[in-house]
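New to this. Explain these tokens.
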Amino acid sequence: MQLTKILTKKLTSFWLLSLAAVAFVFLLSAVMSFIQLTYSFQQQKVAELETMLVAHHKLHGDSQLDTWLPPLLSAYNAVDFTLTHDKQVIYQLHQDNPILPESSLTLYQRQLEHGLSLSLTLPAPFVLYHLGWSESVILLIGFIAIGLFVRFGHRWYSRELDGIEQLAQRSKLILEGNLAQAAQLPTNGKPRLINRALTKLLTDLDDAHKERGRLDQFIRKDTFLDKQTQIGNGIFFQNRLDALSHNHQMIAHGVLMLIEFDDVDLVEDKLGESDLTAMLTLTTEAITAVLAQYEDSIFARRSYQQLVIVVPQLSLAEADQLAQRVLKACLALPFYGIGNPENFLHLGSAFFKAGDLQVQLIDEAEMALRAAQLQQVNNWFMYDKGAVDEEIAKGSVRWRSFLENALVSKRFFTLQQAVVDNDNSILHYEVFSRARDHQGKDVRATLFIPMANKCGLMPQIERQILEQVLFTLMPQNDATYCINLSLDTLVSRAFVRWIQSTLLEHRPLAARLIFEVSEDIIVKHQKNTALVKSLDMLRKMGAKLAVDHVGQHVVGTHYIQEFHFDLVKLHRSIVRQVHQRSENQLFIRSLIGGLYRAEVKVIAEGVESFEEWQTLKILGVSAAQGEYLAQITETEA
């Protein structure tokens, strides 16, 4: 841009300079022509005087010069005149003119015929001629016309060159990757043909990006969605269940439910495939409406006649209520044409705690389903395995009291895990949070975060965590830290004002911060103005943006470039056993291909084996984190 501005200024200056040079040469030529013409005219008059003197001498000799010569010399404005014959002065005239300096006088000395010679001093011819008022007006009008023409030409020339400036500005934005801003610039660039070509290419590129996002979504749908019900399939369920477990042990508490339809084959033979699809669609829509209030719920079709629901962070009492609501919503549907509508739908539920084996959990859910089927009536059954953890049994009031006391006492602390790139160098550290109760026991984030969201305390908790990172961790080293932010935090005016003023006060620290947001938040709330403004403010302050849990839901990926994310973190369900799952590899290849030429790094989360890490590097993943690469460690104050 600077080079283009310099070029246009040079062109304009050269145009003005060349025009001024032409005008100067024109005026100089006119003056020289005027001077030369007057000199020629004066010389012609002197030649006529010579002829007249020679003719007079032939006729009258040296007499009678006084009769005609003085008026003639007066008409010539002669200053001095001397005529000699054989070196004898026969006539002499001298007129004083104090106004004219000697430098403005012209001396003519001639040798004539018959021994005559003359010496004539005349004023310089251009001194005798002065511009009158009419000539001055004409000259002034000419100069004004020239000035107006030059002004008009300069403005026209500058306006034409401004079109090149706009083309250069759009080109610079395109090279910097700001395609949306380049497309929104005024389309007045010139040459217009080039400007229209840029606009068309930007439009086609935007369509290509959207088409790529739709292709990614199609691949994810074809890989992880059941074609008949449009919910997750068996692969999707297994991936999400693996993400909730570690070493085949569950990492949180919750409930798993199996819903089975009896004699689906007979129903399909009787009603047809289209009516069966309609029945399953109505069922899945009803269950989805029930699960809408549970943020991290999993709903999939496990087999041809079996649906599965997994809801983490749910107490035993809430699990019982959920099972009743699901069964009630399903039985309220019009199941016409079913052979025995009173014994058609059964639900088996198994409650799990942290540390329960994944295989055991599925077996317990299947046993609960068989127990419900043995009752030979539409019913549900919960597998009972005794007492529930004391942590899970805490009610909402106790949780609010615990979290508020922890905030006041500053009993939230941070842990960190390194994110390693392909060269095994530390890219940055991700920060996790923990809380301590009055007995000094650690409370996992998976336990208190859902309750903090319910109580509206996440902005205060994440502010306290961020303060520890800014004022305790970052002064100790030059590392970069990644902090997760929730939706409540990003739309909180108090938090946004605080983080903005803090980053303004500590501007160098902003470049060492990465703010991470869940894909689910972005997709569901991308029209939220407060969320968009908060993310844009953080990016403009110099911090980087990351989106995690990518691949957890079947959505398009166009939002990654729309929100200008710098990092994309794959969900652990996509990473788990990726070397054995071709469908997960297909998704990763599609995602990385869609981000080609974009300055976005793809990071894998939850890498637990050498085979997973090697496969991810072959697929093009830039970095990863997990227990295989680095352990989660408590930060030192």
